[in-house]
Amino acid sequence: MGLDHVVITMVARDDLADGGMAHMADVVRTIHDHRPRSRVETLISDAKGDDASLELLFAAQPDVLNHNMETVARLQRAVRPSAGYARSLSVLSRAKAAGLTTKSGLIVGMGETDEEVVGCLADLAGIGVDIVTIGQYLRPTSHHLPVARWVEPALFEVWKRIGEAAGIGHVEASPLTRSSYHAKDAAARVTPVSIA
């Protein structure tokens, strides 16, 4: 296929003992075997925070490991009932400790405050996350949370500057940014953050 950067996205597979991590690891290895020059980015669930499951994927050495925070701590239960803020930070921290380039994303406009976004960026910087994406929440159906606010484009620029000043290697932030937005460019540009 001639791809230089491949993003592999998974849904939460809580029905599987390993959360689907063995399969993701096999996919990463297969791409690396068949196209060694391609960068492989994985966008994963939290595997319920299970160390052994996560280690299966970490051992495959994806070039970028992405696990999205999605929202600020206060809104986690409303937005992600089966996940948790601390558990997501732990997944990213363990990936970083395993030597992986780490990435996470936030969606804004669900009722968070500006201060909570800055706090989340500080938490991500504190564990050495390399890349963060921030985009506007767009309500997919009437069964989902309503949009609480439309964030002004200038505020995305403010958050980008704050995140990078806090130590995040690269922050991609705009109303239409999503976790895979400019993924190849961000991965190529970022110098992995040291957490010494």
What would the keywords be for this entry?
TIM Barrel, 7 helices, alpha/beta, 6 strands, 6-stranded parallel beta sheet, single chain, 196 residues
Quick summary of this structure?
The protein has 196 residues and is α/β, with parallel strands linked by helices. The protein is built from seven helices and six strands.
What can you tell me about this protein's structure?
The structure is a single chain. This protein has one domain: TIM Barrel (Alpha-Beta Barrel). The protein is built from seven helices and six strands. Strands 1-2-3-4-5-6 form a six-stranded parallel sheet, with helices on both faces. The termini are far apart. Strand 4, helix 5 and strand 5 form a beta-alpha-beta unit. The chain has 196 residues and is of the alpha/beta class. Helix 1 runs parallel beside helix 2 and helix 5 runs parallel beside helix 6.
Record the SSE blueprint.
Blueprint: E1 5-9, H1 21-34, E2 39-43, H2 51-59, E3 64-66, H3 76-79, H4 85-97, E4 101-108, H5 114-126, E5 131-136, H6 153-166, E6 170-173, H7 183-189
